[in-house]
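Entry, Tuesday afternoon. Goal for today is a structural model of the target with adenosine-5'-triphosphate bound, before we commit to ordering more compound. Inputs were pasted exactly as handed over by J.K., no edits. I checked the ligand SMILES twice against the vendor sheet because last time a stereocentre got dropped in transcription.
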Amino acid sequence: MTDPLPAPLADLLPEAVRKRLSSGRLSDGVATLVLDASGLDAAGREGLEGAVRTALAGAADVSEVRVAMTADRAVPRARRIIAVGSGKGGVGKSTLSANLAIGLLRLGLKVGLVDADIYGPSQPRLLANEGKKPEAHDSKLFPVPSPWGVPVLSMGHLVEPGRAIAWRGPMASGALGQLVDAEWGDVDVLVLDLPPGTGDVQLTMVQKHKPVGVVIVSTPQDLALIDATRAMNFFEQAHVPVIGMVENMSGYVCPHCGESSDPFGHGGAEAVAHAEEVPFLGHIPLDLSIRQDSDAGKPPAATDSPQGKAFLAIARKVAAWLEQTA
Ligand SMILES: Nc1ncnc2c1ncn2[C@@H]1O[C@H](COP(=O)(O)OP(=O)(O)OP(=O)(O)O)[C@@H](O)[C@H]1O
């Protein structure tokens, strides 16, 4: 760091400012300071600038103070992992993971997606990069780009489609670890689509990769709710905070007659969330277009359709949670 700011002036600056000073100069009474504002939010930047102005107010030879801030991306913030889990299979965990990732991306975050669902990896299809292989350099994997802007790594990218994976726990955990520890570049938030249930693979994943929080997906059905409650307890015991619960396949509107019915019930997951004192993040309706668009590799959250808005509302709550816990 060069600091041609005259020493008496630099000495006036408080320590918090001095350690962020990238360069400074005084020319014709104008003091110009460039500060590294990495990791600071708007209030932090304002506070820093205020501290400079207060320190240099009335200083001899200074008629004007100019402050410029830079954010040094060479010092990235720690990448945060959000897990998406469910007590049982088939409740829409992968669908939610894909759409949550897209939703967070639309909210301005840099997002990647790891499909750790060894038993039924579906992210390559959901995000339309099926059949592509990740590159590997120096034994590190490089995520596969998707047309939606979210890079993905999935077991489905590593094995041939349709081939069952019959790995035992430690092998599966090792392979899954490589997906998480890949070259994610400037990705800030990694959405981790876990295998359904609460077994060894899930436990190893959360212990090793320490997600900052987990979103639990359930249908409103009684049996699914019992499993969802078990999943919640599992994550709490593993010290992973529950960001909240999502009720999927909640209420069905017939595309022909418009009549609404509740094949799996309605509101059950919300009631469980209240009983367990975890936030409720929202309902996603059971909707034929969600299945069709998902199968076609067109995640609803990329659109402003009513279905897309339902996913975006959930992404907004998750983003707010991340902001609060930053
Ligand atoms: N809200 C919804 N409306 C209609 N279909 C849905 C909805 N959510 C998920 N589906 C469909 O249900 C099926 C299962 O969803 P998904 O694969 O996301 O579940 P999962 O919990 O990840 O299952 P698995 O345990 O197999 O990984 C898929 O065909 C998906 O398109």
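The CA atoms of residues 44 and 205 lie 35 Å apart.
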